[in-house]
């Protein structure tokens, strides 16, 4: 392969790696966990909206944020024990004709219509007092680890459109695992 061919391949690999990288700035912040009476979790996704995700929403493409929460009991000599796992979505659809955002929050079984873009962004990126149900049995003196992750993506397309609109997957953003240790 010639020098110019190698340079072209290197540039293409660099661009693909840049767009496929999972760390695009989104991060879990402001975590609050209550486990004294019931089990509630609150947090916020900082930098959740890329320009591409905002454009997709504004053009009417349904967009979902999937939140994954896992609770482990820490063990010293054995692998950690999975106590529970929960998964839920926040989905936004923009009605271009009415100029209104319809935001669905799965964990609260709630759909809200808002006109304000900032209100929509706050609803999509915030999880407030989510009740972890069924309540896991937490043993006194044990150490637990709560792991949270958010996957921010445009809605899955039908099979035939997936290949025509292949570039949509480059808009997807995923946070790393946020880990919070506590004991009862």
Protein architecture, described:
There is one protein chain. By secondary structure, this protein is of the alpha+beta class. The chain has one domain. The protein contains four helices and ten strands. The protein has helices spanning 3-20, 51-58, 117-125, 159-164, and strands at 27-34, 40-46, 63-73, 81-95, 100-105, 110-114, 126-131, 143-154, 173-174, 178-183. Strands 3, 4, 5, 6, 8, 9 and 10 form a seven-stranded antiparallel beta sheet that branches. β3 (63-73) and β4 form a beta hairpin. The chain is globular and about 55 Å long. The N and C termini lie far apart (62 Å). Mean pLDDT is 80; it is low at 7-11, 13-23 and 164-171.
Give keywords.
3-stranded antiparallel sheet, globular, 7-stranded antiparallel sheet, 184 residues
DSSP, total strands: 10
Please mark out the parts with pLDDT under 50 across 5 or more consecutive residues, or reply none. 7-11, 13-23, 164-171
Strand content: 35-45%
Distance between the termini: 62 Å
Q: What is the alpha-carbon Rg in Å?
A: 20 Å
Structural class of the helices, strands and pairings? alpha+beta
Question: How is the main sheet built?
Answer: 7 strands, antiparallel
- Give the H and E element order: HEEHEEEEHEEHEE
Give the fraction of residues assigned to helices: 10-25%
Quickly count the helices. Answer: 4
Number of domains: 1
What is the average of the pLDDT values? 80
Q: Can you tell me the overall shape?
A: globular
């Amino acid at each position: 392969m010639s020098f110019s061919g190698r340079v072209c391949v290197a540039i293409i690999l660099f661009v693909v790696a840049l767009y496929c990288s999972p760390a695009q700035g989104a991060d879990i912040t402001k975590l609050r966990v209550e486990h004294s009476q019931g089990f509630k979790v609150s947090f916020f996704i900082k930098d959740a909206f890329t320009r591409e995700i905002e454009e997709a929403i504004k053009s009417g493409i349904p967009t979902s944020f999937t939140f994954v929460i896992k609770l482990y009991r820490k063990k010293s000599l054995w692998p950690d024990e999975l106590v529970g796992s929960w998964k839920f979505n926040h989905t936004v659809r923009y009605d271009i004709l009415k100029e209104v955002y319809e935001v669905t929050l799965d964990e609260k079984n709630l759909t809200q219509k808002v006109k304000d873009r900032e209100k929509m962004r706050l609803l999509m990126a915030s999880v407030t007092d989510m009740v972890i149900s069924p309540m896991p049995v937490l043993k006194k003196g044990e150490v637990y680890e709560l792991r949270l992750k958010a996957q921010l993506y445009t809605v899955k397309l039908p099979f035939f459109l997936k290949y025509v609109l292949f570039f949509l997957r480059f808009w997807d953003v995923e946070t790393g695992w946020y880990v919070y240790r506590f004991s009862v």
